[in-house]
Every structure is written in C-alpha cells, then in structure tokens.
Amino acid sequence: MASKLFKNLNNEKREKIFQTALHEFAQYGYNESSTNRIVKNAEISKGSLYKYFTSKEELYFDILDTVIDKYILSAQESIADLPEDLFERVISRAEMEFAWYLKYPDYYKLFKTAFLGDSNMYEKCINKYGNKASAIFSKLTDSVDIEKEIKIQKLSIIKWFMEGFNQSFIKENNIDSDIKTLKKKYIGKLREYLMILKSGI
Predict the structure, then answer these.
(1) pTM for the model
(2) What is the number of structural domains in the chain?
(3) Angle at alpha carbon of residue 144, lines to 138 and 145, rounded to 5°
C-alpha cells in the first residue's frame, strides 16, 4: 500500500509517478521492469520512490489495484446496457471489454503481463484477484431471467467454457498482436462457440 507521504503529494506529481510506473510495468512486465527507469522518467529520486513504496512489488500491486478497480467500475457501469439474452450478454460484455482496452492500451498490457503467466508474480496475481473476476461474472448474470436451478447450471457451464476458451485463445494466438485484430478474432470465435453451446443447452 502506498505511504501517506505519497497520498499527500499534489495530484500532478502523484499522477506522473502513477502513469510512469504503469507504463513501465505494462511495457516490460514485473520481471524486466526497472525502478531506475521509473525514477528517471518520473523525475524523482530513488530515495523518494522508496519513501512512497517500500518495494517494487508494493508499487506494482498499488498500480494493479488501481487499474483493476477502474476495470470493475467500467464493467459494473456497462451491465445495465447489456442485452437480456445470456449468450448475447457474454458477447456484448467481451466487446465492451476490448473497447476499454483500446481506450487504455497500457491497462491491457498490464493485465496481459500480470495474468498470462509470464511473470513470477502470476500466482500472486491469481490468488489476489481471482475472486474479483468471479464477482464480475456473477454481476454480469444476476439480472438474467432464467429459472433459478437451470440458471445455476447454465452459468456454471458458461463459466467453465469461458475459462477454457480464454486459455485456448491465449495459447493459440499472439497476444502481442494489435488489439483490434485480437478483438475481431476473439469475438468471432466466441460467438461461434457460444452459438453452438446455446443450441445444445
């Protein structure tokens, strides 16, 4: 957690440090990121950085906490605009998520390096934020009008499918590709498989 000293900085200086660290972690991941580059680009001393955060890891999770909170807020705000059909709802939410990534490319890159297993922080990230991902999925489906018992079964199946689909997509595609290209491919495949799943349930 950021120190009180960091929180008491003026908004401009605090934001410059945040954006600099965000860009560093987004570009290089946790392992290859450099606190030397962060302090140089943020125009602060290394001593000051370690007064604001006790370690590189604490800084990393402070950045990730902030970005995930923004993502959750965006996801919650979009739910009211989603279609009622459960399958179309999942597809529409995925489209909105990619739109968010296109708007904030460093957020996308940060999530990619944090949650795709290419960092020794991967397990810590999964353990720390896994429950939040489940909560978002639950919110996404709360207002879907399906008989309760059937709804639970359908949601479980879709959740299992999405986990497997995402893992397969990541393995089979270059996640460093242009976000618009990834979006088109991801949404196309997602719609194709969800329609097969829908006709079979």
Answers:
(1) 0.82
(2) 1
(3) 140
